[in-house]
Amino acid sequence: MRETELAIVGAGPAGLSAAIEAASAGVQVTLIDENQKPGGQLFKQIHKFFGSKEHYAAVRGFDIGAKLLDEVKRCGVEVMLDSVVWGIFSDHTLGIIHDQKNIRLKADKILLATGAMENALAFPGWTLPGVMGAGAIQTLINIHRVLPGKRVIMIGSGNVGLIVSYQLLQAGAQVVAVLEAAPKIGGYGVHASKLRRCGVPILTSTTIKEARGKGKVEKAIAIKLDQDWREIPGTEREYDVDVICLAVGLTPLSELAWMAGCRFEYVPELGGHVPIHDSNMETTVPGIYVAGDLSGIEEASTAMEEGKLAGIAIAEALGYLSPEEAKNRKEAVSRRLDSFRTGPFGEAVKKAKERLQRQGEAK
Amino acid sequence: MTLEKDGVLSPEELAELPGMPSKERLEQGAVAVIECAQEIPCNPCEKACPSGAIRVGEPITNLPTLIEDKCTGCGLCIPLCPGLAIFVVDMTYSDQEATVQLPYEFLPLPKRGETVKALDREGRVVCPARVVKVLNPKGFDHTAVITIAVPKDQAMNVRNIAVDRR
Amino acid sequence: MRVEDHPILGKLEKRSIVEIEVDGEVIQAIAGEPIAAALLAAGKGIFRYTRKLHEPRGVFCAIGRCTDCMMVVDGVPNVRTCVTPVKAGMKIQTQHGLGEFKESS
Question: In chain C, what residues touch B105 (CB-CB under 8 Å)?
């Protein structure tokens, strides 16, 4: 049985940021990730981030990832890669498969930063090879430098769908259209404009009806929707494609939090079932914290800040930071989070997070 | 045609933007055109400008305002906008032509002197354009800035190029 | 196909090539990349057939969560090819149904 002070599950932007914050304060940190490399989704983000200088604005995602990795190494964090956390127990131990062996790790505090998974959209033909999630496409084109096809149709016009469409163009593929079931575009106008001026059509009130092909995707059939989201017969349109990319939302990866007995709330604005947490990012189970997309679907920028918040709160709880120092640091992070969550896109998330936190404080 | 429904700013939406220079200023020479229309938390343009010609302030969701008297049309803001929403237009390039400086993140990069297709905000080819300058220094972090010459009446229309893939 | 040159990521660095066998055919892969990436780069899209209806499946999530991409690797079935790195001389087979575990001799 191994022991540590803080075990962090997930080495994406939230986990990395929490590790840096806690380790800098003196906490013994073990950072666990099931992948070969840490960084989560950061290394696939080849676009420049928004925000202000403190949010790493105008820096590309993978460069931010590299900076975080450097800092984690310098802070003396123990990093366990290729390690799957399969269980979490009431005595604060984690079951981990590492190097084909099962090990147990006991931790004073646990931070779950396991991120999110892509939603699927079922339609006739959706199991054909060539139908993939947007994250899958991003991994293939930006990390493995493989184009799974040459003519792609994108389903979903949120920021993920728009950004991945642009990245597909950069990788040399053609995007025949972006289909959006809602009557307006989901993501930022600037992301949409970048695509439109490359000649990529964005069709609102339109969805995919069917995928056709022998053994693989060959055609996508689009269809228009009326104001009650019902298909309008006769409005079908056929596209010759070899890839159908699904960018239809993310859902928190919450198995470990459920296992641990955390209480959840269903919050549509945050992606579905989300663990209730307070302003310290602590769940309803004392000693278990959450940060990043697991605590509500947002962005890498907010994941980093929430990770810091959790790191600071945990360092304080373990006695490495005075209440005064912790309060100051937490306030700085909260200010940055607030400034990021303003405007028409951030308001809904801000309100949902506030509601969730009030529940968390009341526990 | 609206940004929300089509992803393209309508002439009415463009005219209302605080980042849009006046007709008078455009006729005086190179000036930035900031086509940023939504309140998203973002302000690298403000810090990018060496002349203090872009103001965002607090909260950082404010739309950037162009202070056109201070703008020299240097174009340093172009590669720093994460939304690739800033352009520089010079109506005084020649009697017939204006230049448009635009951000470009595709391969192949065109070469100076080459003729490319000039595209409008909907990606339609509107005219041929001559490449006057290609800037792609390390400091721009892979956002090249291409200067093209187009007929004056297309300068506020052209926002992208199509290069022949050889 | 491979993205050899990219406006942001630059040219694909020279990495070492390994050879793997897929259904008896030798294909080239980049050392350390996931099996699924090598197969997609080589234009192979069908990785297995389902048990009941023998329908083709390929890559869906590419991060090891959905099990669409499972194949038989060096005799072991149900290997998630999108998160398993290639090794020189690996033998990969299209999986039919649930595959079979063979006792190692």
Answer: 7-8
DSSP 3-state assignment of A252?
A: strand
Contacts of C72 (CB under 8 A, 6+ apart): C79, C92, C93, C94, C95, C99
Q: Is the separation of the CB atoms in A156 and A185 below 8 Å? A: no
Residues A89 and A48 in one domain: yes
Residue with tokens 């007709």: B23
Domain boundary residue, one of A230, A246, A262? A246
> Looking at CA atoms only, how far is residue A359 from chain C in angstroms?
31
A219 within 8 A of A207, measured Cβ to Cβ: no
Q: Between the CA of residue B145 and those of A272, B36, B84, what are the distances in Å?
A: 42, 18, 10
Number of structural domains, chain A? 2
Of the CA atoms within 13 Å of residue A47, those in its CB half-sphere come to: 24
Given C37, C46, C65, which is nearest A144 (Cβ)? Answer: C37
Q: Which residues contact B128 (CB under 8 A, 6 or more apart)?
A: B115, B116, B117, B118
**C3: its two tokens:** 């993205």
- A343 CB neighbours in chain B (<8 A) are 38-41, 59, 61
On whether the CB atoms of residues B31 and B101 are closer than 8 A, the answer is no
Please state, in angstroms and rounded to a whole number, the distance separating the CA atoms of residues A273 and A264. 6
Interface touch C61/A136, C-beta < 8 Å: yes
Identify the band that residue C102 occupies on the pLDDT scale cut at 50, 70 and 90.
confident
- Beta-carbon separation of C65 and A216 below 8 A: no
What single-letter amino acid sits at B14? Answer: L
B142 with C5: Cβ contact below 8 A = no
Helix (H) or strand (E) holding B119: strand B115-120
Per the CB < 8 Å rule, is A148 touching C59?
Answer: yes
Q: Which of C3, C8, C12 to mutate to test the interface with B (most CBs of B within 10 A)?
A: C8
A238 lies in the same domain as A288: no
C4 part of contact set with chain B, CB < 8 Å:
no
3-state secondary structure of B84: coil
In chain C the domains, ranked by start, together with CATH numbers, are: 17-94 (3.10.20.440)
Query: pLDDT digit string (tens) for A219-245?
Result: 999 999 999 999 999 999 999 999 999
Neighbouring chains to C with at least 3 Cβ pairs closer than 8 Å? A, B
Rounded to two decimals, the ipTM of the complex is 0.96
Phi, then psi, of A167 in degrees rounded to 5: -65, -35
pTM of the model: 0.94
- pLDDT for B109 equals 95
